Amino acid sequence: MNDRPGNPLPFPARPTVVVAMGADEAAASLPADLRTELDTIARLTPGVLTGDLTAPEERRALAAADVLITGWGTPALTEGVLASAPRLRAVVHAAGSVRELVTSTVWHRGIVVSSAAEANAGPVADYTYAAIVLAAKKAIPAAAAYATNPKPAFLDREGADGRTVGVIGASRIGRRVLARLRASDAKFRILLYDPCVTAREAAGLGVELSGLDELCRASSIVTVHAPLLPETHRLLDAERLALIPDGGTVVNTARGALVDTDALTRECLAGRLDAILDVTQPEPLPVGHPLRKLPNVLLTPHIAGAQGSEVRRLGAYAVEEIGRLVRGEPLRGRVREEELSRLA
């Protein structure tokens, strides 16, 4: 299970597993039944490491760890932390992105990394599709106007059929959103911008490939699913937001910094655009920020990903990955160093 030379040890038949994440996050993602299941294939260390992983008790636990299950609340796996884990062979992340978790030491040690991002993608895609339907029906401004206009004129009502939706990024989540849009009875016209996708691949996805400016000009709803990279920072800047037709909606369930917050605020204040934002830059927005008060904006506190009962999916995914490790099977959520810069 190791890509690096010089570490030929076979993976243990019954590895010792240590859980390191926030206490509440561990309770939600690894409830008793999953812990029992995990304990049939591994030695699960009792308790959860919830601190900075450098205290003596935590160092003792890490010293025995073959596998570390991480999640929300796990500190970065620095050289200092990993020095206490000489046996560590795998990090299985029961959450989404590992960009803030893994360090160069993880890769240098040849530690295998897996993420449950695939399990987290379903809830985000469901949320995004719901947001697109709400946007198509102009539900957010209609709800705000309900107190003074409880019964809008029949011809003033909006519908979803035939709307053009621009999807930025055929990422893991973006592809799921595309699939939901294709399956919709609304028969959306779907445009995709992704410089890594060929015309042939776009045809296989059942969408039209488009340039970004052209997508903005043609789409009444624009939804963002690109990774946050230096080249995608403020990808939707003032100039591109201005291309979106009057009455359009920006949906962002990816990363707040993909959209120029100040420029979007101006467009929404003018009433020209609506927005459904689960992420912002900064996050959260300051108290009193105009986007918090506008009737054509829906802000939610980063809830599109797995929440509540859904979080168990991430723990179940992690347990399944450890089973694959034990059986010597390929990991479904394997993350490699060269891929990290392209991931969310």
Write the layout of secondary structure elements.
Layout: E1 16-20, H1 23-29, H2 32-38, E2 43-44, H3 56-63, E3 67-70, H4 79-82, E4 90-93, H5 104-108, E5 112-115, H6 117-136, H7 139-145, E6 164-168, H8 172-183, E7 189-193, H9 199-205, E8 208-209, H10 212-218, E9 221-224, H11 238-243, E10 249-252, H12 261-269, E11 274-277, E12 297-299, H13 312-327, E13 334-335
Parallel strand pairs: 1-2, 1-3, 3-4, 4-5, 6-7, 6-9, 7-8, 9-10, 10-11, 11-12
Antiparallel strand pairs: 5-13
Verbal overview:
This protein has 344 residues and is of the alpha/beta class. Mean pLDDT is 94; it is low at 1-8. It has two domains: 16-115 and 308-342, Rossmann fold (3-Layer(aba) Sandwich); 120-299, Rossmann fold (3-Layer(aba) Sandwich). It has helices at 23-29, 32-38, 56-63, 79-82, 104-108, 117-136, 139-145, 172-183, 199-205, 212-218, 238-243, 261-269, 312-327; strands spanning 16-20, 43-44, 67-70, 90-93, 112-115, 164-168, 189-193, 208-209, 221-224, 249-252, 274-277, 297-299, 334-335. Helix 6 packs across helix 8 (172-183). The protein is built from 13 helices and 13 strands. The protein has a seven-stranded parallel β-sheet with strand order 8-7-6-9-10-11-12, sandwiched between helices. A six-stranded mixed β-sheet has the order 2-1-3-4-5-13, covered by helices on one side. Residues 153-304 form the D-isomer specific 2-hydroxyacid dehydrogenase NAD-binding domain. Residues 59-335 form the D-isomer specific 2-hydroxyacid dehydrogenase catalytic domain. One of its GO terms (molecular function) is hydroxypyruvate reductase [NAD(P)H] activity. One of its GO terms (cellular component) is cytosol. Belongs to the D-isomer specific 2-hydroxyacid dehydrogenase family.
